[in-house]
Protein 1
Amino acid sequence: MKNCTRCKTDKPFTEFRVNARYRDGYTTWCSQCHRERNSSWAKENRERLSAKSAAWRDKNVESARAANRRFKIKHKDRLASLHADWAKRNRGKRNATSAKRKAVKLQATPAWANLQEIKEIYKAAALLGPQFHVDHIIPLQGATVCGLHCEANLRIIPAQVNVAKHARYWPGMFEQAQRQGDLFIEGAAV
């Protein structure tokens, strides 16, 4: 047994961290006291820690992304539970987002779209499982361009790729933008 100098209670040696700098080889505070103190220090210094973390992420973009990916994989079930709880508490926001998405999809569906083929694409994705999504190649709500909800603009891709893509880019986007840039150069042939 060892006495914690912070909480003043006797605890077994297993409750203390190993540290060779101390005479008996263990820290003077128990693990619980260390956790409490570190937590309160982090709360007191939140801005400093946030700035430090942001600076590191800016310098190490790829490492930060990899760490984020590992965290999401390791805590997948917990994150899904948190997301489900948030969705229950914020049903109005979820309904509004869902309604907006449906409205955009309806507006982006041309009269000539083959609805049966679109259903088949979604059915095929469902058979592959939740790790696959139906992706709009050119996003329905992109910042620079909006695509159509038709069979030619749909493809089945892994969920991770679709989620990472968001509505930011599509295949050939940069080449297309460069070709269109020539249209606006003065004196260029159209």
Note: Residues 91-107 form the longest helix (17 residues).
Protein 2
Amino acid sequence: MSESKDYSSTPPSVEQQTRRGVSWSFAGAVITNGMRLVVVAVLGRALTSTDFGIVAAALSVNAIIYGIRDVGIGSALVQRTELEAGHISTAFALSTYLGFGLATVLFIAAPWIGIAYGITESTDLIRALALFFALRSVSSTSRMLAQRAMNFRRITIIDALSFSAGSTVSMVAAVAGAGPWSLVAGYLVEEVIAGTMYVWSHPPKFSLRIDTQRLRELMQFGIGQTIIQSANIVATYGDNFVVGNALGARELGYYTRAYDLIKFPSMVFDAIVGNVLFPAFSKLQHDREKLATGFRRVAFVNALVLLPASAAIIVLAPEAIRLLMGPGWEDAVLPFRVLAVTILLRTNLKLGGILAQAAGAVNAVAVAYVIYMLVVVGGASFAIRWGVVGVAVSTAIAITLVSIHCSYLALQVSKLTLASFLAANGPGLVLAAIVTAMAWPLSSAMRSADVHPSLIFAVVGGAAIALCLIAVAVWVRSRRGDFEWLGGELRRLRRTRGAR
């Protein structure tokens, strides 16, 4: 008889745990993304575009291999309805074997990878970052157990502390003249601290024995998840390989800086909502009505926030790049603007994929991500003749296509109608049009008057926020459609704070 224990930890109210998780994740996102902006500002002035390009080459290779770090069984621990001790020990053993094995392969192959990339300066950095696999393999099971338990208070504290520590190390090292090694040091410090805290807070069953039956059960979900992880990472970094190989470290630095800044909103979505939604949707995977309601509401809020924000960012791109990165980064403005068009699409891509996977449609999502990967890499290879701007356009097209695909899959599994989904995005589109109509002529006039970039950013950005808040307040008072729900959530939040 197999050793069995109940690890399901089904909460009395998934909705309540989801709200708490979002609240804690929001607090963590404020800290980590506030620190991230400081890091961008400091490193943008302390490091060169070439430094960033060298590190981007090393990180691209590591990230692509990272997609197969546990062949998807970590996510399977979260998604499974029934979980036994054998599943956990097997997940820990396999993750450890793969982590140390991949670290060894990467360390040995680093010189050839640097030559293939066309940036041989990245060889030693690739070897140093290979340690990441060994470190993460020991703690990955603990991370997934924390997510399954929806213990987002602890997750937030661990992630915020480790990220802040790693970021501080990177900034100090960069100012001290460590160059690209400052980024490597920060990544490794962050991983050591986070891994130690996760293992301490959610210790797995330390065992190097693999139970073949439990492995097969995990792999039913894990194979598709591995394909998704691998394809997504190749899609995310494949264009980097094309740019670095064809144009060199300097141009790769410009491209990756523009891309990384645009990833902020989707990273915030992951930090605040994405990590909460997967375990929450997994617990509700057999309740299609609740899945549909959750999908529509999250899509509604995403559009309400991100569409007008995207419009403002596109208009204020020169000022945003200048303030965040410092002088000398003007070549990143146009690719930044092109990629900014995809901010909501990137988030909907993640939202649709999360819901479809939680409902069991992992193989369908895997197909979507494979198509995404092929379009990104193929498009970048074709568009590289037009430089980083051409690659930015091809990547934007790829993101658009996979976003539509994943949203369609989410509509299928949740039974939400297309008309309902499009209606949820309507108010956000209206706000984006309002912001554009105000921000474009105002910013153009201020630039013509030679106003300082910081003042342009503050005035136009502040006006955009004010307009959006006024419009939302009017809509909430009308209590129509999704705004009736939003008003109820805001009133509930005020009551909760008042009770405290």
Note: Confidence is low (pLDDT under 50) at residues 1-12.
Protein 3
Amino acid sequence: MTRSFRRAFLDYWTAGWIALSVALLSLSVAFRVPSLSKLYYSIYFLGEYAFGYLFVAGCRNYAIGAQLTRRQLCLLIPAAAVAISLPHLSSDFSALFIPHAMIVAMLFAWSFCVLRTARLKSRKSPGLRLVSFALVLLALAFLHYVPIFAYAQATGAALPIGYLQYTSVYDLILEILLGFGTLMLVMDHARHEVEASNLELIAARDKLEYLARIDPLTEALNRHTFYLLMEKKPAPPASQPGCLVVLDIDNLKPINDSFGHAAGDAAIREVARAVRSVIRADDLLFRWGGDEFLILLFNMPESGALGRVSKIDAALALAELPGVTTPMPVIVSYGLATFASVAEIEQAIEKADTEMYARKQARKAQQKRVG
């Protein structure tokens, strides 16, 4: 898992479990080779302290993202001193186990308290609940050894054989439960990260779709969206009639030449705003080219469309453009055509475009005569 899921808390927990494995193997050797018991007792104690501390470090990283620092690692130095000195205090392992059990219980309780931060942050999961449950049971299990072994040492009473035989089994079961919960916790975290990544991908896809369909300057639909609409399955009702308007800005080049492209862009935005002010909410506005727009008005007669489009000139009579001290008109030419069905839209565009161009030429001719 550490190869495929690179997270610091998983590295800490993995190192901790390795330390615990070494500790349990050392304890087994110490019981079997009495002449080397002090050495292997020390390795056992240190391995369990390292396991507890690394588990705390993993919980801190999981809960709040904290990384182990060199200064924090120095805390293992006093743990090593305790592990080395304990076997020299007594030859009776039961006596040595009393302070050891207290230290281990405190480490398990510390891990539980650290994970509580994650629970308070609502990062609840089955793995988190199982790890917390196992930590509580392990802390209580090691803590209960302290009074029992202390009583046996004080009174000289022998502990029941059955109790001694099964305590290690209980500890092992609880540690397996903790290990299983740890794996669940890692998988839950991986699942949440995948879900978060999927949400980010969906948001990015939606944004890209928006950018692909919307003209960023005017926020009108773009030409690509028009063709997608015509090809969409199901397409708009084939028998749906209506009108379309092709509209072009006449004086965009003079505005660009005299006042700069910022003013020209503002003029294009003003045209889009003016068109929106006269069409219905369900009518479609497309930016057809650089200074050209296409308006689709379904289920509207020609007279109604003409009445609306004729108001655009008035809406653009006093446009405020950057770099221009006084409001100036933005002049547009338009062509209108009707269609009886969606299949006729392409032909209607050509007809409206021709009418728009003729109107533009007529206006230019009129301006020359006046000039």
Note: The first strand starts at residue 221 and ends at 222.
Protein 4
Amino acid sequence: MCAFMMISLKMKAKQAYEVFSEYHCALKPFRDASKGQCFYECTVLHCLEGLEAAIRLGWYVYEKFDAREYDHYEKVENGDLNWIVPGKFIAFMGPVDRDQRQQARYGHSASSYTKIFKHLNVSRVIRLNEPKYKKEAFESQGVAHDDMIFVDGSTPPPEIVT
């Protein structure tokens, strides 16, 4: 509802969030699905502030948002992709090298992602987690590959960010 209020009624994140102040105590922060200690809390207000920034930067324009494309690519069987910065930066579930039987159950191989990436004009992959696939599967298909590995579910260390 807060997002609707921001998009349609042009309210600021904090303004929309405060409308529901009596429910704040019931809203639990997001926790990364990975095992172990959670190094950050992502609250509803953080998400709304992210939406506010995306609107301000032109990364989210309601009239141009293609819900059908989003619904297609966010499904695991279609890549589990989400544009972070439209046309510039996309997040996806890391591929895992597995045999065909396991691949159908657990997602895409690196080589199957290259077909999707060619369609979406993705030219570089940056691996953030421990290697579970051969980066050559991307490079051999003309997709550049870099490693910037840090603990899953944590924030990247300064040497990666800078």
Note: The two ends are 36 Å apart (CA to CA).
